[in-house]
Amino acid sequence: MVYTRFRYLKIACAAAVLSATLGIAGALLILWLMWFGYRKRLYLKDQGNLVAWLSAHVYLGLSLFVIATLHIGFHFGWNVHTLAYVLMCLVIASGGFGILSYVRYPRVMTENRPPESVCAAAVHSRKASPRVKSKPGPPMTLGAPASA
Question: How far apart are the first and last CA of the chain?
Fold first, then answer.
């Protein structure tokens, strides 16, 4: 009989521990995702491949939506917590739009260009290549212009 009285208390304690664990995991994920913006500007060789970091940023960002939804336990109301959740979902949705734009628009722009401009761009990139050596110009002088 004693166990039946405390059954709901044990369920509530387990739910609180689960919610706290998911909240801590979500907060750590948010900090790691914010670190990516700093990391991609470091230009260091020893911190891994930037493409791998981007892939992890995308997948962990999408998993944050699931973790945060489970953390709040589907309890929505007119409060600051729901506002933070909605803003986080908007940030994740804008990241999804960024992925679609990154994949789709360069291909669409290339398809819409006339063929002669694509060939001209390829020729121009060959001319602008740093491997091509050019003649040095006249020496630069400081002060008054040289008289001819």
Answer: 111
